[in-house]
Give the backbone structure.
Amino acid sequence: MLDSNPPSQSGGIRDLGLDELSPAPIESAAAFSLARVVAVHKDRFVISNGRIDVFAELTGRFHYGAESAVDLPTVGDWVRADFFDDDTHAVIHELIPRKSLLRRKSAGKNTDYQLIGANIDVAFVLQSLDDNFNPRRLERYLVMIHESGIVPVVLFSKSDLFSPEEVEQKLASISDLVVGLDVIAFSSENGAHVEQIETLMKPRKTYCLVGSSGVGKSTLLNRLLGRNEAATQPVREKDSRGRHTTTHRELMRLPSGALVIDTPGMRELGNLFIDTGIGETFSEIAELERQCKFNDCSHTNEKGCAIRAAIERGELSEQRYENYVAMQREAAYNEMSYYEKRQKDRAFGKMVKSVKKQKKGSKGHY
């Protein structure tokens, strides 16, 4: 939840980032108080009116009228609410239209969303420079953030474990991924370049930290807060993997006045749309596709294929292109209707059974 020190009376609700919001008019706006969701614990919400944080629940109409998770409040959302019993409890009536929504595909086969945070200005993508360093995973985070219309900043933790030359080598290896982005290698252990991160964070702006478990999100957050509020756990030595220390999403206010959403580590990333996120993250590949000699180029062995030529010249890595193709396929599958997916899965199942049957029959001829 927010800093235990209440905001100044002169700031109040505006200290929660209201200056960055232009809510659409709501008919019943005058009847309710404006508040921001600062924490979500499963189906329970904590909201703040700039003076106090209180637990809140949804009206029955709101709850049962929601068609999917996207229609429900998440951390960072602005809502209209009633405060009761001397501001010890609240009821949420309406969700104010968001200016941004960071979300990912839920784990598993279901095509559904898991909401990460709303009304975010900048997303810090954290990876560590040890075994967690993974350009392909970084690409997936960037696609997710670009889809949401949020500005990404890339942070690499644990720089104290490597020499300056080794750090530069790792950063050079992902130079084609982060063109035009702020990239900072830092250490929460010795504080190296943490101040550089702080200079990017402005009062009343909303930021979030995303990344896998064990990359140091909670440790960095404690540094930024100036106290140990976010729980941390050691990383397993054998595989550099961390345990999930943040178990829910929470909005915190830094001493500088910036607002930060801490999020649980993500084991799986899925991307639902291909128009914006993938196009922005892999913009050079999209440009190369337009340069191919044939409009229906499969980018395998056709003459005049700009993509194959770029790979052969070393201007585009094979792994980056394969990740681009894989995400396009995932997004296309996720956008199919439920019926289409069932038909496709059944057709594949029939093909597998047919192949097994043929193999079984062929054995009887020997």
Remarks:
- The mean pLDDT is 78.
- The chain has three domains: 12-95, 101-262, 282-344.
- Residues 338-363 form the longest helix (26 residues).
